[in-house]
Design goal:
With 293 residues, the chain is an alpha+beta fold. The chain folds into three domains: 5-74, Arc Repressor Mutant, subunit A (Orthogonal Bundle); 92-188, Phosphorylase Kinase, domain 1 (2-Layer Sandwich), CATH 3.30.200; 193-292, Transferase(Phosphotransferase), domain 1. It has ten helices and eleven strands. It has helices at 5-10, 14-26, 35-42, 46-58, 76-90, 132-138, 150-168, 203-219, 255-274, 280-292, and strands at 33-34, 62-66, 70-74, 95-102, 106-113, 118-125, 177-181, 184-188, 193-194, 232-235, 238-241. A hairpin with a 4-residue loop joins strand 5 and strand 6. The protein is elongated and about 70 Å long. The protein starts with a helix and ends with a helix.
Length: 293
């Protein structure tokens, strides 16, 4: 991950972005893109390409491998910058701020956008960066993809999460989806504190609020798939559920099992921390019955 993505972005030139786009596109056909392909895509001469490539390598945005020819690929950080550049060109965002959080498969930055300089968040998916093999085993959107790059894997995850948010918002308390490009999503800022790190005054009320959102999502044909106290924020008005790239539909062959796991995770948390006890099977049945109605 780039230590300072705002400064790196500001220092980028249009021709550097053009070369990154060339490598990105040619990686569909080459594991390591020959420099001649970059020349053909950009229209720049070889000497200019070599100069730009040297700068991109210094910024740790591209990787080089000698295979009888000089081949290049882009790093996750370059993919992040390409998505960010798309958001800026569209006018989705006009400034990027501090790092808000780092997850196992994503990083989130603060941003502002629109004519009102609205506070936003940019989530960059980095799926497969740490352990691509492990990710393939557990990701629904990758089970039928036998040969897939980490760039495409992160793109699929971001697209899937963005689609889920568009289906759910505003009917379910989730971040508002604003825009999507490559491996990144622009969304509204989460309102509240993470449930795992917060002590609520009325745990039974908050548990009901969370279960209500689970039911509403189920009615819209969405099961979170990885629900826990670590992807729920709470505030005086209720809660927001985030991180939806692993969602499934009720038609999934393991839908009941996965829904049960989601609910049991939440019930186990409230039981352990607040001694609030619910029958998980009764809760599951109530969700299913509501959807059938």
């Amino acid at each position: 991950m780039l230590e300072n993505i705002p400064e790196t972005f500001i220092g980028m030139r249009n021709k550097e972005f053009r070369v990154l786009v060339a490598i990105e596109n040619m990686m569909k056909f080459h594991e390591w893109v020959p420099v001649e392909e970059i020349v053909n895509f950009t229209g720049y001469n070889l000497k200019e390409i070599e100069f730009i490539i040297s700068h991109l390598a210094q910024k740790k945005l591209i990787n080089k491998k000698v295979l009888g020819y000089d081949g290049y690929s882009i790093y996750f950080e370059a993919y992040d910058l390409l998505a960010l550049n798309a958001f800026v060109k569209r006018g989705t965002i006009n400034a990027i701020g501090d790092l808000l959080g780092i997850g196992k498969e994503s990083v989130v930055y603060a941003a502002t956008g629109g004519i009102t300089d609205r506070e936003l968040a940019i989530k960059f998916h980095t799926e497969g960066k740490i352990s691509f093999k492990h990710v393939r085993l557990k990701r629904e959107h990758m089970v039928d993809k036998k040969h897939i790059s980490w760039l495409y894997a992160s793109r699929l995850a971001a697209r899937k999460e963005y689609d889920a948010l568009r289906l759910l918002y505003p009917h379910v308390n989730v971040p508002e989806p604003i825009d999507h490009n490559r491996n990144a999503i622009v969304m509204s800022v989460l309102k509240g504190q993470m449930l795992a790190h917060t002590k609520v005054n009325d745990p039974e009320w908050f548990l009901e609020e969370i279960l209500t959102q689970v039911k509403k999502a189920m009615q819209l044909g969405i099961i979170h798939g990885d629900l826990s106290e670590f992807n729920i924020v709470v505030n005086p008005e209720g809660c927001q559920i985030f991180d939806w790239p692993q969602y499934i539909t009720p038609e999934h062959p393991n839908a009941i099992e996965i829904l049960t796991r989601d609910v049991q995770n939440i019930l186990a948390f409230f039981l352990k921390k607040y001694r609030v006890k619910r029958d998980s099977q009764e809760v599951i049945n109530s969700v299913i019955e509501l959807c059938q109605k």
